[in-house]
Protein: UDP-3-O-acyl-N-acetylglucosamine deacetylase
Organism: marine metagenome
Amino acid sequence: MTKSQIICVVDDEPAIRETLENVLSDEGYPVMSCEDSECFYQELEQQTPALVLLDIWLPGTDGMAVLSRLRETHPDLPVIMMSGHAGIDAAVNAIKLGAVDFMEKPLQLEILLDKIAIVLSNKPPDKIKDLASDTRMEVAKIINPNVPSGAVQLEESERPQRTLKGNVVLNGKGLLTGRNTGVILSPLDPNSGIVFQTLDDTSLSAHITNIENFDQSVAKQSFSANSTVLARENRRVRTVEHLMASLHMAGITNVLAKVDEEIPNIDGSANDFSELIKEAGIQDQEVPAKDAVVLEPIQVGRKKLEEKHLYAEPFDGFEVKMRVDYSAPIGEQKLIFNSDQDSFDLEIAPARSFNTFENIDLAQKKGTVGSGYLDSHIIMHEGKVINTDLRYPDEFVRHKILDLIGDLYLLGYPLRGRVVANMTSHGYNQALVQKLHVALTT
């Protein structure tokens, strides 16, 4: 070992310092340790370590202030932050200030040693693959706008139309605005559909023709979306997709959703919406529902593994096959969801939104998203999830299925068919729904 590979441990707990000193020494790393910032600054005047393990909660000057000062005096010195009493905000702020990583206590020593080895190896980061992002505007170009005549037809369903038995309320924070908001769900008569209503009583049917900038999207044969937004008469209802997915899979055909500008986004999943529907209770209505039945394939994008695309094809039932392939920690993930065989509430609804720290940070600086992202996303940085434990090993592909199920309900009817999707996001989902709508009306 050389002097340049010294690791400095800064923590006010003697037991943690002793444990880290012993473990690191056994691995062959020279170690120096400090109980507070004053001791650390004194050591730093004598020698510069190769890496600092820095606790956030220190007596006197705390770890975040130390990190901020280090970025000015030693901008290239890597720092791994540690804390036993900090949440996502602290982790994100630490990375914003330049920490290379963040570890929660009690420390998992094997993981910490892996992180140290990577930092000290000076290994260049892997090239980041494109990540379908809720913070960026993405264009889904329709390669072939033509739709086969009769490709989708309405057929009477074996299921009745459904509404809720009573009124229910859910409060939370808006994903894009970061403001407190809420939604009230109420029963509606048969043949009413899913209707959103703003606080000034502007009604917006949950239909593809009511998405924001729909006419412009159709004219240009391309769809741009950073979430699913309904718009009419200068009024908007944002981030409806997770609620729509829960309504879709519960078979709710008629409901009124009273809301301010944005649907609350509790944890980035559809869990709370599915529970809300159970709380209200489901009421069958004495009118048969109708299904949009896919009779011929309809496609958006080119059917190539390396390109985003999706298509609907004939199938007796409703099924989604999704594939994603993004940079670590995601990789390639595939999943098939069949509404007759699989449980939406158990297997899809709990899957949360995800994005990279860099995308979220950039969007917040531009003012296009609010603080809601910090509490409702799986956040990734340098190939790792930095703010939570995954609910499923393949939670990412599950959430993509969730979004697609919600966007498909913008057709106005449950779909009878199979949708096969590769690396898609809201823009591509909406482009397919627009083609399904055209097929249904011609």
